[in-house]
């Protein structure tokens, strides 16, 4: 039987949430009272590519030095991969999981419960809970399904809220990490450390962990191995309304991987903004046309609509995004002044 009292506490947490990291932290405390776990990984994801971006995790300290390998194995494991989940699942046959065979078994992990936070606008996060001793029950998985349903929209709402602040000036300096085939860092350009520290603030006196870079690089490997077809790219909020786009590609004869980090283009920002605000397909298309500077007449012609219909769509966009003018709308969506 699903614990309705715990779900109600999580609902109240979600209703009051303004920050996705704080929301996940508070929700985990409630989840742990109903579904005990030894470790967890709960990243946000790019809603379109499903590549992880902003991780919240607690894993055994012994695994931290091998974090690139952990992420690589996670992306190469097809069993219960978040991109294919339709509901919470556990490791019915652990030996079928590459992630478990190559890594988790040696850590004493006996089962993993996986859930995905997805709606019609995209994939927003996934949650893995590791258990040492015993397996997850049907009731526990049912509880995780209820939690995922409760938290998907609030997490999407928190992502939409990151677009409300004024966008900082763009940095023209190149930001690149060079990784070896096993995703270990070989080198990086000088601004990279600052970006990484802001994406995932490290404890005092420790180097920042390039988790977002590991994830897009691991997605590249997954695409190459035929595990997934989405491109190795992810968009992630940095700070102050500023969004970054990370991409991974092979370079050189040694099969090294370059991960580039750059300010998201207006089109990239707008695509995430439209999904986060729950815009319908035609509304999202209209918004993209507006970012090019097109006026109502031009947009109507491009979309084969009447100007009156364009205005109706625009009113709906204003309502869903909490804006009242095109100037404010485009400032939030595209990051333009």
From TrEMBL:
Gene3D superfamilies from the entry? Winged helix-like DNA-binding domain superfamily/Winged helix DNA-binding domain
Keywords for this protein:
DNA-binding, Transcription, Transcription regulation
Domain HTH luxR-type residues, every copy: 272-337
One Pfam family this sequence matches? GerE
Can you cite a GO biological process for this protein? Answer: regulation of DNA-templated transcription
Specify whether Phosphoprotein is a keyword of the entry: no
Example GO molecular function: DNA binding
Q: Which domain of life is it from?
A: Bacteria
Q: Does the keyword Transcription apply?
A: yes
Q: Under what name is this protein listed? A: Helix-turn-helix transcriptional regulator
Native source organism of the sequence:
Dactylosporangium sucinum
């Amino acid at each position: 039987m699903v614990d309705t009292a715990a779900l109600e506490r999580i609902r109240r947490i979600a209703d009051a949430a303004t920050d996705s990291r704080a929301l996940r932290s508070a929700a985990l405390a409630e989840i742990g009272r109903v579904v005990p776990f030894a470790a967890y990984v709960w990243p946000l994801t790019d809603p379109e590519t499903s590549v992880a971006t902003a991780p919240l995790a607690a894993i055994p300290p012994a695994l931290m030095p091998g974090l690139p390998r952990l992420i690589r194995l996670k992306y190469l494991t097809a069993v219960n991969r978040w991109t294919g989940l339709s509901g919470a699942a556990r490791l019915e046959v652990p030996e079928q999981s590459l992630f478990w065979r190559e890594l988790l078994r040696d850590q004493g992990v006996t089962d993993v419960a996986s859930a995905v936070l997805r709606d019609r606008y995209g994939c927003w996060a996934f949650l893995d809970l590791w258990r040492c001793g015993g397996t997850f029950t049907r009731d526990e998985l049912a509880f995780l399904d209820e939690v995922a349903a409760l938290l998907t929209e609030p997490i999407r709402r928190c992502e939409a809220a990151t677009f409300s602040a004024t966008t900082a000036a763009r940095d023209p300096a190149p930001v690149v990490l060079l990784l070896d085939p096993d995703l270990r860092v070989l080198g990086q350009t000088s601004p990279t450390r600052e970006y990484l520290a802001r994406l995932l603030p490290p404890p005092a006196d420790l180097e920042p962990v390039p988790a977002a870079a590991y994830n897009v690089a691991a997605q590249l490997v997954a695409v190459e191995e035929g595990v997934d077809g989405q491109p190795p790219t992810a968009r992630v909020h940095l700070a102050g309304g500023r969004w970054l786009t990370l991409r991974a590609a092979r370079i050189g004869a040694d099969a090294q991987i370059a991960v580039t980090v750059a300010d998201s283009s207006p089109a990239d920002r707008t695509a995430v903004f439209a999904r986060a605000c729950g815009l319908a397909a035609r509304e999202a298309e209209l918004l993209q046309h507006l970012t090019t500077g097109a006026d109502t007449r031009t947009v109507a012609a491009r979309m084969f609509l009447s100007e009156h219909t364009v205005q109706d769509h625009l009113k709906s966009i204003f309502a869903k995004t909490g804006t009242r003018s095109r100037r404010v709308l485009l400032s939030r969506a595209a990051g333009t002044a």
